[in-house]
Every structure is written in structure tokens, then in C-alpha cells.
Amino acid sequence: MGRYNWQLFVLCGFGWFADNLWMQGVSLTLPSLSAEFGVSEKSVRYTTSAMFLGLCFGSFFWGIGSDIWGRRVAFNVTLLITAVFGISSAFASSWGGVCVLYVAMGFGVGGNLPVDGALFLEFLPDASSSLLTLLSVWWPLGQLCSSLFAWYFIANSPADQGWRHFIIAIGILTFVMFGVRYLAFYLFESPKFLLSRGRQAEAVAVVHGIAYRNNRKTWLTEEILDAVVDDSTPRLPRRLSTTNLLNDKIASFSGDRIRPLFKSHKLGLATGLIWFCWATIGMGYPLFNAFLPQYFSHGGNHSAGDDSLASELTSEAYRNYAITSIVGVPGCLLAAYAVDMKSPFLGRRGTLAISTLVSAVFLFLFVQYGTTPGSQLFFSCVEAFSQNIMYGVLYAFTPEIFPAPVRGAGTGVASFLNRATGLVAPILAATIPGDGTTTPVYLSAVLILAAFMGMCLIPIETRGRQRL
What we know:
single chain; mainly alpha; 73% helix; transmembrane helix; MFS_dom; transmembrane; MFS; transport
């Protein structure tokens, strides 16, 4: 890891930071939106569905776009779109207007994790593979920042002003991150992308540029690169049309690209199980976390009705949410350490399964025994700690399972399932009968527990294995 790689670690971390900054930011505005626009506590949860709709479109579009225009365009533009439409939503005059602008904002946010994670992986030395797990530390930092801003702006202002000031503040912060990426740092295009487009000379130039930034020298030349390429492998044309690139990307989800993921019993079982885990976690995670501010607003009193307006959060509730966010940060640090431990109970698979089980158990405890603000705080802190371990390992473990030729298809399907089921979660939370503060959490616990059972059955452990 040289200077350039560490700079990229920070700038790619901005994407993870912004993803959770806005995901939690939307959640924190729900009580205020309910109070200002007269939307019931359960119906206002459709606001989160609006953001997830944008996330679905964004993750698909920017995944394709990064293969057409390169990583640099998506890397810079996603944060700009997020900032522009995020700030615009603060000036909406109706709940419907807020939802529409949240869709547009989510479209920008949706490109952060797939593009930034892939970009960092393509510049990451094999010896530093655990840093891909450590990259997830930016995720709880985004939540922490969002909770602190909400505590300051929303808790100390009228309902119709506080959430607007809060959204403007995190929008300006996102715009600053865009400025740092675009103005203060020159991002080299990914050599892997350049090689995939047949642009060997540019790939060699990038390697030399990175070596210079890291105060190192490299022996790589275009002639040496050509010499190590398998002559039997057909060369791509130096430039591919947008249509051909789009067709190639869509073809990655065809049977010809999916079928190799099931060419052996072991790989097929691992593929099916990891997709199952992504889908169940994708629905279970937002059923609890997207509405945690609403749960805090009741202080453990499970009495919300279908038509009741959400209670405005007290200063204590915002404080508890900030504490929960702080406790989540060490979880990512522990995950980065545990994934490479040689204990039979840890490594990638063991750490993932244990953290997921703890998460499921404490979701059940949150409903059963979270009857006071203090008990809710305790259970949500343990939940945040374990879930950050879970997601940190999951994002690193998944691409390592799949062989390189079909890694894009395998991770692409996993990401799609995660976003698609996440879109369904707020709809369920708003429409399922019964108590709006307990039933969604019970369902979340069941889904996370199902993911744990799937993780225990995954037959592959990638700890210590060279990344292909």
C-alpha cells in the first residue's frame, strides 16, 4: 500500500460514508415529515421506499455506466447527483415532492458502493486484502455524522424547519466530498478497465503514474505486458461501441454467464446460499434500521396505530441514536482483524455467521425487553456493533467466492437482490397489519436468522486464498 492507495482508501470511503449518511438521513426525517405533512406513522415509511427505488436504478445504471465510460466518471458524478437532489429535497413543499426528489437522490447514492468498492479492489494489493473489509468503517461513520447533524438541527428547531436544515447540511457535506474528489485528487482510470477495453498502452501509463505517486519504480512496459498475455486469448478491439458494451453487460446476467456459477456442486451451493443471504439481509436490515428513529420516538411504548402521526423525536432520542452510531464503528475494525484469524471459528465465514446470529438474537431482545429508552439504547448498540461486522465481512467475502471470469455476474446478482428486497421492506412495514413498532422488528429478526442459517452452510472459506 503506497500513498496513492491510501488516498484512494479515503476517497472511496466517501462513497460508503455518503451511502449511510443519506440512508440514515432519510430515516431521521420520517417523524418530521409525518408531523409537517400530516402523514400517518406507517404511511410515511413509503418515503424510504422512494429512496430504495432510486438505489435500485442507481446501482444498476452506474454498474453498467462504469463499464461503458470508465470508473472515473461514475466515481465523481454520483456524489454530485446526490448532493444536488438531496439539497433540492429540502425545498419541497409536499410529501410527494420530497419522495420524488429522494428517488433522484437515491439514484446518485446507488452508484457509490458498487463503483467505489470495485474501484478500490482493482487497485488493492493482494497482501492488503483485509483493507476491503476495513473500508466498511466509513459506513458507520456516515451514520454517526447523520445522527449528530440531526441531533443539532432537528432536535432544536420546529418540525417544518429542522429537517430541512438537516438535509441541507448533509447535502453541503456531500458536495464538499465531491469537490475533494474532483478538484483535490486526480484519479487514474482503473488498469483493469483499460485492459478490458484493449487499451494496453494507457494501462501501462497508469501503472507508471501510480508508481510515481507512490515514489516507486516499475519495470512494466507495453511489450512486457503483451508478452505475458496468452496468445490464444482473443484480443478485444481497442475501442468498443456503447451498444456493444451495453449488450456485453446485459449478457453478464444471461444464462451463459450465470451457468458457470453452478458448474460444480460446491460452487453452485455457495452461490445460491450467498445470494440467499444478500436477499434476506437486504430486507431484514432496513426493517429495523430504517425505522429506528421511529422506534426511539416511542421510548419502548409499543402503541403506534395505523393512522397515528409519528411522535417527534426528543433530544434524548437523538442522543441515543448518536450513541448507537458511535458503538457501530469498532465493529468494522474488529471485522477487519477477525477475517484473517486462523481460528476455525473465525475467518470470513465464521466471523460472518457469528455476527449475524448475534444480530438476530438482539433483534428479538429489542422487541421483548426494549421497554424503556435505556434498554432500547443497549440493545440497539449491540445490534449496531454486530451488524457492522456482518456487513463489513459480507462485502469482502462475496467477491472472493466467485471465480474471476464470472465475478461480476455473481456480485451483480447479489447486489440486485439486496436492493430489490430492500425496496420491498418499507412497503411491508407500512402495510402489514398489527403494531407498527414490533411486527417489522420481529420480521427483521426472522430474516436475519435465516441468513445466519444460510451462512453456516456455505462450503467455501476464502481466508488466505489468493484473489483471482
